[in-house]
Design brief:
Order of helices and strands: HHEEHEEEEEEHHHEHHHHHHHE
Radius of gyration: 24 Å
Number of domains: 2
Largest sheet: 6 strands, antiparallel
Structural class: alpha+beta
Number of helices: 13
Strand content: 15-25%
Number of strands: 10
Shape: globular
């Protein structure tokens, strides 16, 4: 488990998802115990159903959950990668090396399980917490480096670690040489599973992927419905808020990782913040608004509502990531009510899709 690296990725995803769904359209959606008119007008006197048109009848869609050979091949490649080994070299760690290390972290003298793992580390990649990779440069294989890192808030999603200092003991087991990728054959299949042949294991993979697709069928349906709907009118107040919120997602990441706003855009492949603003920002804002309009329009067309319990569950889930920034859950909810309503609305619309649209597996 690449604990630091994966937490960074998760946080980035969360921030971007919030940016894409938090344009805030003042839903004021109906809760159980008293429905409110879903056609409540948006800013600029628009209704969601007036802004969206469908090029096909979404109720007649056949959403494909089929597993392709390409999907199976990608899964096999992933499994082979998971079981790839490396030539084990000895020496001193240098910038650019990939090493395998036994990592143990302590906070306030106590072992912190979330900061302990055995994993590969690419020195200089920036995948791990700031200062971690640099501290390993020059360390000899077979020896243990001891150093302290200050953990920025949000890095682990663990209040007992975030914002604290971690004392690391990192034993460098070896420096990775050439990779040794296993061949997909009967012997390999037998070594990683209870199956005897590649044919049996491939069939298992296909069934597993199909099961995953069925679990995620609402997301497949959402993508297909997005493809057949068109926005006739983008309410400018929604676009303006969506632009601000998408930008704020990047600003939040800059603060989280201790870099400037300009640097975070460069990290994502843009020449500058201006390059992003003049390029992808408008399309991202339009995508955000399109999803908001689609969710609201479908809720109106199909009379979809959510319960107080469903709303409260979303509040609890989202508050978990921000409880350090607010004095109480009530304060968090009050300041982010429109965004929370957006999220729960999206959830129930997708749930309706999972239960009501037609799905095919071949």
């Amino acid at each position: 488990m690449e604990f630091i690296k994966e937490n960074k990725k998760i946080i980035m995803i969360i921030v971007l998802c919030i940016a894409l769904f938090a344009g805030g359209i003042g839903i004021g959606m109906f809760l159980a115990g008293g429905k409110e008119e879903v056609q409540k007008k948006l800013g600029g006197n628009y209704k969601a159903v007036d802004c969206i048109e469908f090029e096909e009848d979404y109720n007649k869609l056949e959403v494909s959950l089929a597993v392709s050979q390409e999907d199976i091949d990608a899964e096999i490649d992933s499994i082979k990668e998971q079981h790839t080994t490396y030539e084990q070299k000895m020496g001193n760690v240098a910038d650019g090396d990939m090493i395998y290390a036994n990592i143990v972290g302590y906070v306030n003298g106590k072992r912190a399980d979330d900061a302990c793992t055995e994993d590969f580390v690419i020195i200089g990649s920036g995948d791990w917490i700031e200062g971690f990779e640099d501290a390993l440069i020059g360390i000899k294989t077979g020896t243990t480096a001891e150093f302290t890192i200050s953990v920025p808030n949000g890095s682990f999603g663990n209040k007992d670690i975030d914002g604290h200092d971690i004392l690391y003991n990192v034993k460098v087991e070896y420096i990775c040489g050439d990779s040794i990728v296993p061949e997909y054959n009967n012997e390999f299949v037998q070594s990683i599973s209870d199956y005897e042949t590649t044919e049996e294991y491939t069939n298992y993979i296909k069934e597993k992927l199909l099961e995953e697709n069925q679990t995620d069928r609402a997301d497949y349906a959402w993508t297909d419905v997005m493809d057949i709907c068109k926005v006739k009118t983008y309410p400018e107040d929604m676009l303006e808020k969506a632009r601000d919120t998408v930008l704020q997602g990047y600003y939040d990441m800059a603060e989280l990782y201790g870099c400037t706003e300009e640097e975070v855009f460069i990290e994502f492949g843009y020449k500058s913040k201006e390059d992003f603003v003049n390029g992808d920002l408008e399309e991202l804002a339009k995508d955000t608004v399109k999803e908001q309009l689609l969710a609201r329009a479908l809720a109106s067309r199909e009379n979809i509502s959510y319960t107080q319990e469903e709303y409260d569950e979303v509040v609890d889930d989202e508050y978990y990531y921000y409880e350090d920034e607010y004095s109480s859950k009530e304060e968090y909810e009050k300041e982010n009510k429109e965004e929370l309503e957006d999220l729960v609305l999206m959830n129930v619309v997708k749930k309706w899709m999972a239960d009501n649209l037609k799905y095919v597996t071949e």
